[in-house]
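Reading a protein record of the kind used here takes only a little practice. The record below shows the convention in full:
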Amino acid sequence: GSELGAKGGAMCAAVAVGAYASLPEAMRAMVKVETRLEPNAERAGVLDAKYAAYCSAVENNVQASLKTQGAGLAASAQNRATAA
């Protein structure tokens, strides 16, 4: 089914009450693999490039955010110092 969180909870409960000796045993009994997806090696280069661009964008955004926050904190500290 599509309620994977509930299924995981049911597996944990089944192990807890002793219906199965372990989670791997419960998984083998309670999970049915309908479709198995394999990576497409032909697309790996394209996906690697896209992931690198994503990582760069995130890093640039984090750096910009830290600069903005740092400037705001410095101004706040300066305001407190002059008010004291």
